[in-house]
Amino acid sequence: xxxxxxxxxxxxxxxxxxxxxxxxxxxxxxxxxxxxxxxxxxxxxxxxxxxxxxxxxxxxxxxxxxxxxxxxxxxxxxxxxxxxxxxxxxxxxxxxxxxxxxxxxxxx
Length: 108
Description:
Elements: H1 2-17, H2 29-34, H3 43-50, H4 57-72, H5 80-87, H6 95-106
Helix pairs in contact: 5-6
């Protein structure tokens, strides 16, 4: 994931060079640098970006899972709803799948 890390660093550098976050409280800097503009737009562009360095979407998910486990002692992104979305990621949404996802989101 070297190229992805470098892309993020370059993006932050560009944001800073463009005075993003200037005159704002430094504890909020991450918000101004990373949340007020789009780094990647759309699922396709995000998927292609994640595949750099011969990576995969699932490699990124595993990296996030490991980060959450080591920093927070639990994994919050890997829940039933997430598992359903992952299971259906290459499929079309039909009424049955929609109902399963809605039920999972509602906690039923």
